[in-house]
Amino acid sequence: MVTSTGVREAITSLQDLQQRLGLVQAQRDDFFTEWTDGLLALTAQELASINRIKQRYDYHRADGLLLEGTINLVVTAPLLELLGFVDPPFRLKSPYGIALELEDPEETIRGFIDVLVLQGRLWILTVESKRTSIAVPAALPQLLAYMAANPEGQFPQYGMATNGDEFVFLKLGTSTEYDLSRSFSLFPRRHELGQVAQILKALGQCVLGQG
User: pLDDT tens for residues 146-203?
Assistant: First the structure.
């Protein structure tokens, strides 16, 4: 099993994932179709709730980047509650957080990844930083390494990673393959939180064995 120290120190790039863990990005178009195929339309009530989340996000984001637990409080937690992920039959675990350190050309950026696991197979990962925003793609090697080290041992694993401004979905297959969705944005007026909710709902059905 990969330890937290091992991931933080040894896995800093996608190349490290391949060399140290044998993980490679899938080249098949049909590997990760769960984020594109068969998505259900949101109800009017769900759309209204999505708009409220966006309004709250805009209100707090106007003061600058969302810091520490504000992302979870304003965006992630309301989204999970809206989609029913805090109610039966879902089970949540918050096993640990991940310290994150990235080398920027001008400074070392230190942050934190808050981890929440649903049904042992769906990872909700919030990337936080006190001083500056850490782009989700920069944290993907560490996120995938932790998913690969999941003690539950159930695959495929799915993930949603966000820094408050952007969302990326991940799939780690039963072998050594992974793939990513495109990035979805919450920041502009024409935001994509509705699509994020649709995909997250679909992945929730997958881990319940209904997808």
Answer: 788 775 667 899 999 888 889 999 999 977 899 999 999 987 778 999 999 999 999 9
In single-letter form, the type of residue at position 74 comes to V
Determine if the peptide bond prior to 188 is cis (ω within 30°): no
pTM of the model: 0.85
Let me know the angle formed at the C-alpha of 161 by 133 and 7, rounded to the nearest 5 degrees: 85
Judged on CB neighbours under 10 Å (0-12, 13-18, 19+), 148 is buried
What are the residues whose beta carbons fall under 8 Å from the beta carbon of 47, sequence distance 6 or more? Answer: 194
Burial class (CB in 10 A: 0-12, 13-18, 19+), 70: middle
Overall number of domains in the chain: 1
CA 28, 30, 31, 32 dihedral sign is positive
Please tell me the least confidently modeled range out of 6-10, 74-78, 150-154, 205-209. 6-10
Token pair for 60 = 């707090």
Contact assessment for residue 138 and residue 113, using Cβ atoms and an 8 Å cutoff: no
Q: Rounded to 5 degrees, what are φ and ψ at 107?
A: -160, 165
Domain encompassing residue 86 = 4-207
Query: Which tokens in the block code for residue 1?
Result: 């099993």
